[in-house]
Structure prediction request, 618 residues.
Amino acid sequence: MIAPMKKVFLVMLDRERAQGLKALRRLGLVHPVPVQGSGEGLETAAAALEEARRATGLLEGVKLPKSAAPKPADEDRGLAVVRSVNALADEEKRLHEEASSLAREADRIAPWGDFEPGLASELKDAGLDVRLVSGSARALSEPPEGWSLVPFAAAKDALRVLLVAPRGTPFPESEQYREFALPERSLGVISARKREVASRLAAIGGEFATLAAELPSARARLARTERDHRFETLRSGLEAEGAVAWLEGYLPAADFPKLSEEAARRGWGLLADEPADDELPPTKVVSHPLVRMVQPVFDFLGTVPNYREYDISGLFLLFFSFFFAMIFGDGGYGSILLLAGLALALKSKLSGGKVPDPIRLLVLLGGATVAWGVATASWFGIDYAKLPEVLRAISIPWINGGNPEAGDNIKVLCFSIGTVQLVVAHVKNVRRDWPSLKLVGQLGQFAMVAGMFFIVLNLVISQTKYPMPMWALYTVLGGFAANFVFGSYDGSKGFVKGVIGGILSSLANIVSVFLGVVNVFADIVSYIRLWAVGLAGVAISQTVNNMAGPMLGHAILFAAGVLLLVFGHGLNVIMSLLSVIVHGVRLNMLEFSGHLGMEWSGYKYEPFRETAQADRAE
Prediction:
């Protein structure tokens, strides 16, 4: 469920705002309304946060040597680690830029060979002007007037010469040859510096590898800077007038007594109220431990329900398990997932900890996939006739691979699941709208979904096997009429005005209202993707088996056949995971959520609090 929230205002003495915020942070209950901080303290906190983020990000990209192990997190050591990492990163960047500059200069000088540029300076000090020029042999056959020509280097592309003349001798400009700018260093010196730079870059790489073991400390430092930055933002952004300052925020209604007790103990002023209709509190989802395992999926998607929307965690988990199993569609793959999940769960228990929610979810989804594989007799894409008798015996004939009509039957199952899920959405909406007559519009949507199910079976699967009953058509038409009249009903205006207003609203949006009927049809048909994607996975499995099968019969090719099986089925598992994300999640987040009227426009409840380590520090 979504925990009810209270909006609170805390008033404290302005001179005590820092101490008050520290106490509030230790309490860890209030989600402050965002404020705009300012000042030198916030700038310092922001710089420290950026420094820690950069260093942590760099270390996360460094592979820890196999011979090393991560060191325990130490927040105090984390500061030194962060500064060392950033200093190395700055030096590495500078050296890479220098290496690029050296490489360009070496390429420019290379055609002239290795010479000492300082000799030109000595000649200039002796009163001579020196020019290095390249051009064709014809262009440089005669030196310019007043200049002496000394051959310097020859190549296929050009002749390179040294021109010398007393200082002040005019140097004629010519398009037939180009003057070469004297370098500051010789090619040999540049090459030596390039080797020094390369050596130092390699050493920096080694230092990064060593520092990779300090990643936990860098993360601890990052957590500290994030905490300090949030504190300073709030401290400098509190509204104040005269001697008092105040904070506005939200907290779960169940936790309000704790805040009230703390406010009384510290002499704060406290005002609490229900959030107004035009306000959007943060969302705190409170789920049963059996349902909470689906939270990693929501975290991965980055979706949070609006405070005034539904918590569909339980329904999401239920239907997602069906979708996952049908998309993977193979008991063999499910067995691998299930065994992996059980192994990880056992490892967690043996280490004395709780089984994390992602592992519990993996076990559930693996078990659901095994159950679907048992029902359909799908095991690594092996042909039904070649399966052991026990696997065929425990399957369900209506949908197993030995039934030529299993494909159509699975389509019916897909449409049935979709219809049930959409009907559940409108049942929830009916409960939401009770006792307003607006619920009649939701009953109309309910009727359209129920009637459209039989129309879908008739049009998509078979007109002979599933003749369309006339009452289904009447149900769709009646549901449309009910939704047309009561879909936008507003009971606050009275019955007659509410009905007239609902009709006028539907007329104003007549195109979208009519398209709503088409959308119901399309949404139910959309569930056929469960059959289609599952069928594609089976086809890939069978193709891999057909390719590898002949190899397994030859000793020479046996190893190649095994590798092909592992690679092909492994690739199929990865593609199935992607399909779950694209299709399995979509049915919950679009079709189901669309009928619920959910927009997932909420934001997570994140109270102003600190870690246990920080608590001890203060």
